[in-house]
Amino acid sequence: MGKRRSILQQVIFILMALTGTGCPAAWFVMRYERPWLAFYIVCCGGVMLVNLLFLLIFVRKNIN
Asked: Which stretch of DSSP H or E encloses residue 50?
């Protein structure tokens, strides 16, 4: 189970890193063209990061 736990945590960390880098990149690329869409993408990315953080906490707690 230890191997499964570390793989699952790595996948969650990778998703958090991709979301954390993709949202600011989308903001800088789209903020002049469509500012409302850039703001929406950043807000959705922030919510996704919070959800992934909760998921990581619960995974660490519940998988033995």
From this structure: helix 35-62
pTM of the model: 0.79
Note the Cα 57 to chain centre separation in Å: 14
Q: How far apart are CA 41 and CA 23, in angstroms?
A: 7
Tell me the average pLDDT across 20-26. Answer: 91
Q: Which of 62, 20, 61, 55 is nearest to 41 (CA)?
A: 20
**45 is written with which tokens?**
């990315």
Return the half-sphere exposure (C-beta side, CA atoms, 13 A cut-off) of residue 62: 7
Q: Which of 6, 29, 10, 8 is nearest to 18 (CA)?
A: 10
